[in-house]
Specification:
The chain folds into 2 domains: 1-50, no CATH class; 52-238, Aldolase class I (TIM Barrel, Alpha-Beta Barrel). Helix content is 33%, strand content 23%. The chain has helices at residues 4-8, 13-23, 39-45, 117-121, 129-143, 164-177, 193-201, 219-225, 233-238; strands at residues 53-60, 66-73, 78-87, 97-102, 106-108, 123-126, 148-154, 185-189, 209-212. It has a 7-stranded mixed beta sheet, covered by helices on one side. A two-stranded antiparallel sheet has the order 5-6. Helix 5 packs parallel to helix 6 (164-177). The structure holds iron/sulfur cluster. Iron/sulfur cluster binds at residues 109, 111-113, 116, 118-119, 157-159, 190. Iron/sulfur cluster is lined by residues 109, 111-113, 116, 118-119, 157-159, 190. Its cofactor is [4Fe-4S] cluster. This is Putative dual-specificity RNA methyltransferase RlmN. InterPro entries: Aldolase_TIM, Methyltransferase_A, rSAM, rSAM_sf. Keywords: 4Fe-4S, Iron, Iron-sulfur, Metal-binding, Methyltransferase, S-adenosyl-L-methionine, Transferase.
């Protein structure tokens, strides 16, 4: 079966934007319903799944504020994503729930941190741009009008900076099509110096918050905990 990137390969940028906008419209549930697209393009898209993830298992906390979903991808691989609710109490208004979602960026992870179950799985593949965005779309659809996602943390399975292009595209799509601003999105990394340098220079990389898992400020201990630690990383970090 054709996939979305192949079908859109020769389409102008505005077409892709129309599709991305439709992804976030809860009244649309398949490509054929995007009325701004030509009939010919809608025909080509009609067999493409509207969401690239589907629920495998869901666990919800007693307070019902936190849920963890295992999502199955179209090739049968499975990833984890978490929804965390919190009261947004304002003095004179009733409390309303706001949500943070924790998003995965890879199936498995090659960084092999000693304390991490995902690291033990090894690395299977990078998530596509759609699969990253679809974790947000999955939760927003699940919540419906009951709640609003206003924070995204890239702290799920995988090292985001090892999936640089797809993470960058996904973040730009989320920023363009939701009212979540860059300061409400956090990219968390175990530290990939080459990608960190690239990100600083890259004008198209959105100015989201950046979190680094340090775990230890000495090279020896950090190397034991995080075998991906590169020599002189701490010096690089200070500079
Ligand atoms: S980078 Fe993150 S996901 Fe990967 S092994 Fe380390 S803690 Fe686990």
């Amino acid at each position: 079966m054709e996939n979305l990137p192949n079908i859109l390969k020769n389409e102008p940028a505005f077409r892709k934007k129309q599709i991305y906008k439709a992804w976030f419209d809860l009244n649309i549930n398949r490509y054929e319903k995007i009325s701004t697209l030509s009939l010919a393009l809608r025909e080509k898209l009609k067999n493409i799944p509207w969401l690239t993830v589907k629920l495998k298992t869901l666990q919800t906390s007693k307070t019902e504020h936190t849920s963890k979903a295992l999502l199955e991808l179209t090739d049968g691989e499975v990833i984890e994503t978490v929804l965390m609710g919190r009261d947004n109490k304002k003095e004179d208004k009733p409390a309303e729930l706001r949500y943070t979602i924790c998003v995965s960026t890879q199936v498995g992870c090659p960084m092999n941190c000693a304390f991490c179950a995902t690291g033990k799985m090894g690395f299977k593949r990078n998530l596509t741009t759609e699969e990253i965005v679809d974790q947000y779309r999955y939760w927003q659809k699940w919540l419906g009008k009951k709640g609003k996602i206003d924070n995204i943390v890239l702290m799920g399975q995988g090292e985001p900076l090892l999936n640089y292009d797809n993470v960058k595209n996904a973040l730009n799509i989320l920023l363009d099509n939701t009212d979540i601003g860059p300061r409400k999105i956090t990219l968390s990394t175990a530290g990939v110096p080459s990608a960190m340098e690239k990100m600083i220079e890259d004008k198209e990389f959105p100015t989201v918050r950046f979190a680094l898992s340090l775990h230890s400020a000495t090279e020896n201990t950090r190397t034991k905990l995080m075998p991906s630690h590169q020599k002189d990383f701490l010096k690089f970090l200070i500079e």
